[in-house]
Amino acid sequence: MNITKAIIPAAGLGTRFLPYTKAIPKEMLPLLNKPAIQLIIEEGLASNITEFNIILNDDKQAIKNHFSPQPMLEQKLKEFGKESLLDGVNAIINDAHFNYIPQPMPHGLGHAVLMAKAAIGNEYCGIFLPDEIMIGQTPALAQLITVAQKYNASVIGVQQVPHEKVSSYGIIDIKDKLEEGIFEVAHLVEKPALNQAPSNYAIIGRYVLSPCIFHSLETIKPGAGGEIQLTDGIAHMMNNGERVIAYVINTTRYDIGTPVGWLAANMSIR
Q1: N or C: which end of the chain has fewer CB atoms below 10 A?
Q2: pTM here?
Q3: Does 5-268 carry CATH code 3.40.920.10?
Q4: H or E element in which residue 149 lies
């Protein structure tokens, strides 16, 4: 199993950051001196991902611009002896292949993933949720890929959350413990009530999924909010014989989907 392709759903409206995101995509919010999405791409490259399928709407041109050459800027920097300022992003442009796939209307995370069906084909792929930045010695997605290859299965990233917060996440119901931090999944429960949560292992923003996910996303009906939910698609795969494993990601996770979380990440990341 050679996993070299990834999907990054980035067509959301960024309403929690308005009015800032009226003009600037939330994925371009700075984390120190880099836009947040650049850290996602760096994690992908460090996990041997070479093709990034970014799901966009028409208001996200800034993301395309960031990962494209800018000869005039590069020439000006060269004249001032500052061309090294773009070394990091230029290395990404040289090493990565980007596909920009439109999602004109936000019909849910599952719908966004489904937009990449033709680009992924009949391959396993990684999925990054760009609202979540994960920093650790081994890249988060690389950890999932290792488990997927070992067990020949789809893998979802999880971390333990305080019991009082389980109703904010998709939660796994554990069937078996395979190894330390690796579980066979029995069921997925989306945002359970506190007294109905089967565990406190929450699904977080990294996945390695079988191409079967696309058939499931095409088959299921809209779920919460009238949207196509990725969790529902994974559950459908499981119900149709696809093995799904949960892996406890060993990184520090920063949820930058809210202004408070984004500020905390900027204060913590070095």
Answers
A1: C
A2: 0.94
A3: no
A4: helix 140-151
